[in-house]
Amino acid sequence: MRNVTGQVVRGEDFFDREHEQARFWRDLETDNLLLLAPRRVGKTSLMRRLGEAAPDKGFTAVFVDVSDAGGEAIFVGRLYEAVLETEASNPLWSQMEKSWLGKLVRRVKKLSGAGFSVEFDPGQAGDWSTLGRDLAEALSGLEGRWLLQIDELPVFILKLLNDGDAARERVREFLYWMRRLRLGFPAVRWMLAGSIGLDTVTARLNVADAINDLRIVSLGAFEPDTAHALLSRLSETYGIDLPAPVRERIIQRMGWPVPYYLQLILHGLRDRTESGKTATEDDIEQVISVLLDPAHKGYFDYWRQRLFDELGRPDADHAKRVLDAAARDPDGASRVTLSQVLSKSIADPDGREDKLRYLLDVLENDGYLVEHAGRWRFRFPLLREYWLKRVAS
354 with 348: CB under 8 angstroms? Predict the structure, then answer.
């Protein structure tokens, strides 16, 4: 098992998540899924793992990352390309070659060793909704069931939202179009995901009913026993003696053992500890110190940027003030304190309470804060340390 820190984890490098996989397959028998997961907990790796197991579950899985898609027609084109890359789509490819879709598709090019490239006729690209519906209808007519895994959908939605004055209505149209596809073609299952919560984005746009047909599932950090097992496996691979008390120190310092950060700490230990040597708790502190230094701020800075991507202003500024206050004490801050923090920018008590309730829901769902004994504290202590050093004002 390799120490992977920058890529999607595949094959033998993937670890555990057996319970989650079983639960998601059970839910997919009857529902489409919205996977909510903070960044770096292994969302994409898990989706890929489900895709590998899909044939045994009676599905053909198609994975599409739409984070860089530049519009609805490109989004739909990505779906076509991903579907055509699967062996199960051979009948569809044959139909397209015989031009059942020839009037809509200008060119479908089969690339040697690199899948398909789909180019829509310029006159038809604006009718992306018809193109997408035709694809869903075609898949429903093929043998077997299909699982369309759409990763980073909220990022795509937010890009549309920032594209001109009519963007809000454009996003509404797109979201309701996707809902019609999900409800209209039950042989096709959808799994939507993103490191930004689609539920938060739709609530911001007041279109929460556009996703009310989805079963919401979540993915969080490892349980302590699983984190111990992962660290043991990785340390064995690289010949590092990692005693139980040292593993416990790693988990205790993290507080919320996210796979990505466990892998980062193990990578740091590999840099400090020769093969065959025993790692110490002091080594752990040195590794964490390096992770939190300015040269490595990219390991954590996304958490700050995500607020502005997901919430926009002024809510992102409100959320930052709440997090600044919660970071000042390891035990967090009371709700009264957090309300006082917002009082300078939101004078109306009722409006302030509504806003605080909304922000705490978002920050809890996204992995920033957790409520304990009447106080809101950082769920991830390492993130709190970063926040105090690099973000809080």
Answer: no
Q: How far apart are CA 63 and CA 42, in angstroms?
A: 15
Nearest in space to 218 (alpha carbons), one of 43, 350, 55: 43
Beta bridge partners of 151: 65
Strand order in the sheet with 215-218: 59-65, 145-151, 188-194, 33-36, 215-218
224's enclosing H/E stretch is helix 224-237
238-263: average pLDDT: 95
Query: Are the C-beta atoms of residues 218 and 41 closer than 8 Å to each other?
Result: no
pLDDT of residue 95: 62
pTM for the model: 0.87
Please check whether residue 171 is in contact with residue 183, taking contact to mean a CB–CB distance below 8 angstroms. Answer: no
- Per-residue model confidence (pLDDT) at position 273: 84
Q: Please, which residues have CB within 8 angstroms of residue 183's CB and are 6 or more apart in sequence?
A: 213
Nearest Cα residue to 245 out of 291, 277, 284? 284
DSSP state string for 150-190: EETHHHHHHHHHTSSTTHHHHHHHHHHHHHHHHHH-TTEEE
> What value does the mean pLDDT take over residues 3-18?
93
Preceding peptide of 224 cis, ω within 30°: no
- Going along the chain from its start, the domains and CATH numbers come out as 17-218 (3.40.50.300), 224-291 (1.10.8), 300-390 (1.10.10)
